[in-house]
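Appendix C: a fully annotated inverse folding record. The material below is reproduced so that readers can follow the format used throughout the book. The structure is listed first as tokens, followed by the designed sequence.
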């Protein structure tokens, strides 16, 4: 999550990238109507034994109306158990910004989404379940620093780890100087009827161009067995899709 410029927030320059990666959290802002932004990354999760897991999360963000964004998420996965790489689960979602610079809530959005069992549970590239989620997003800016707080609820269908789960995240981004910024986040998953886990993410981002931002960093376990991970990726505001 990078510190956001006033231009990107106000929509005066629709070609300015608004990265939601690398953090688990998202911000309340949306891609301008008629514009497309792509996020792509690679993540290596280290496990206690056996080969590491790799994934390539991809997010397509379509601006469909003022304050409304449609998301399509895709991924490929190489399971840690040494299975055959393949397509992971995908999903769709809508981010709807309801408030701008409101007292207490700041810029506030809701994001319902649906995760689809495109991956294979048998091969370890998917969960084999359908997940419906609702995310509440509050974003604030204080000078060169951004703060995003998310609280989410997920209902997972029968099969696999069926049940309910919550998510909370606190993410910040601040300018280091020039094109360099720093993203940091603490996030928690109370779990699907299981033990909670808490992770910490941190790493720099680099603005190659106002419409192209690169990132890299690490994820560490705080509590509950979050696999240590390394990540890298990019956000590219492609331009008009309609």
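Designed amino acids, in order:
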């Amino acid at each position: 999550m990078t510190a956001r410029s006033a231009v990107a927030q106000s929509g005066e320059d629709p070609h300015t990238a608004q990265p939601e990666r690398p953090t688990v959290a998202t911000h309340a802002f949306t891609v301008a109507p008629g514009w497309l932004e792509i996020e792509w990354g690679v993540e290596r999760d280290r496990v206690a034994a056996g080969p590491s897991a790799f994934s390539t999360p991809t997010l397509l963000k379509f601006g469909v109306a003022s304050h409304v964004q449609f998301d399509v998420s895709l991924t490929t996965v190489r399971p840690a158990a040494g299975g055959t790489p393949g397509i992971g689960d995908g999903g769709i979602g809508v981010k709807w910004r309801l408030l701008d610079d409101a007292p207490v809530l700041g810029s506030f959005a809701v994001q319902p989404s649906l995760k689809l069992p495109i991956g294979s549970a048998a091969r370890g590239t998917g969960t084999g379940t359908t997940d419906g989620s609702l995310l509440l997003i509050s974003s604030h800016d204080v000078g060169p620093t951004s703060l995003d707080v998310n609280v989410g609820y997920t209902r997972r269908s029968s099969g696999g780890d069926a049940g309910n789960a919550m998510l909370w995240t606190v993410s910040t981004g601040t300018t280091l100087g020039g094109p360099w910024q720093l993203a940091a986040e603490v996030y928690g998953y109370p779990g699907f009827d299981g033990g909670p886990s808490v992770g910490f993410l941190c790493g720099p981002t680099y603005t190659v161009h106002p419409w192209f931002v690169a990132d890299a960093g690490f994820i560490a376990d705080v509590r509950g067995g979050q696999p240590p991970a390394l990540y890298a990726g990019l956000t590219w505001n492609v331009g008009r899709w309609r």
